[in-house]
Amino acid sequence: MTLKEIAQEAGVSISTVSRVINQNNSRAASKEVQDRIWEIVRRTNYTPNSIARNLKSGNTPSGQASSHSIACLFAREPDAITDPFFSQLARSIEKEAFKQNYILKYSFTAIDIQHPSTFHLIADNHVDGVAILGRCNKQLLSFLKKHFNYVIYTGLNSLNAKYDQVLCESTLASEHVIEYLIGLGHTKIAYVGETQNEERYVGYCSTLRKHNIPIQNEFISNVMICSEGGYQGTKALLNRTREATAVFAPNDLTAIGVMRAIQEEGLRIPEDISVISIDDIDMAQYLSPMLTTVHVPLEEMGKMAAKTLIDRIQGGHHLPMKISMPFYLAVRESCGPPRKTTI
Predict the structure, then answer these.
(1) What is the C-alpha to C-alpha distance for residues 78 and 295, in angstroms, rounded to an integer?
(2) What is the Cα–Cα distance from 53 to 51, expressed in whole angstroms?
(3) Does 312 have pLDDT greater than 60?
(4) Alpha-helix runs per DSSP H in the chain
(5) Mean pLDDT of the chain
(6) Which pLDDT does position 80 carry in this prediction?
(7) pTM for the whole thing?
(8) Which of 331, 334, 221 is closest to 268 using CA atoms?
(9) How far apart, in whole angstroms, are the C-alpha atoms of residue 26 and residue 193?
(10) For residues 263 and 55, what is the distance between their CA atoms, to the nearest angstrom?
């Protein structure tokens, strides 16, 4: 595959393709065009000439045989590939890897390895390293340890393993969220999302305790972190009680379901109940009302994950590193002071 052939298939000029894949320029083309170009690159296993020359000559930075390729594992959930949070993270990893003459050879999910044919394809299709997107269980970690020499993890929950990690620490982010709500005057704060092994729930609980605010079971809906989980969890919450004046959702997709359920019940956001979350995906600012959420630097996390993984592959470092990325609260329209009367 050549730049010319990619350009022909994508329906753009060669110079546009070159700017997108070689300069990592976010303004080189529209998001739709960039996504189309990267899909062709990934599908055809396109490699820049410098990689081809190195593979042909056997010259690699580490002095060992290298495929100059990596993989991405969407570990969090079966539909994580379509989740805007993880898809943007993977796209950033792919772009930065390509700048360093590596390609993203394939992506797979935790569900994929349960199918024998896919399992063998992954095991036999050699790549130099893998980036884990979202936390994974011990079984999946054992698989990774067996089949991949170099692994990096990136996400919001820390991983209990001796791998390089690039994190935006969700415990701190959730503490920041609850502090903000308390600062607005809220003391009846609900949580809609997963509670087991979830650092965002830990931050929710610890901050309430810090301010001597009781943790009420009726304010907690333990549901999957997704839009449907947010919707069903909020429906159940509002059937139990209408005392809560604010809802904290662990991510924006869950918050979207939360907002839909609240509005279907005839309640107003934020006049009757405030909604807040973590991620700041693109659609957060296009909701009505616009969602107040913690901004997670996905572009920078992906870049750092790719750089760290490739540095590890090339022997640049050997001890596990944990890199913490900053965050900030994007204050918009979905939060306000608590209502003065009970609904």
Answers:
(1) 24
(2) 5
(3) yes
(4) 3-10, 14-23, 31-44, 49-57, 84-99, 116-124, 138-147, 170-184, 199-210, 227-240, 252-264, 298-313
(5) 87
(6) 58
(7) 0.80
(8) 334
(9) 33
(10) 57
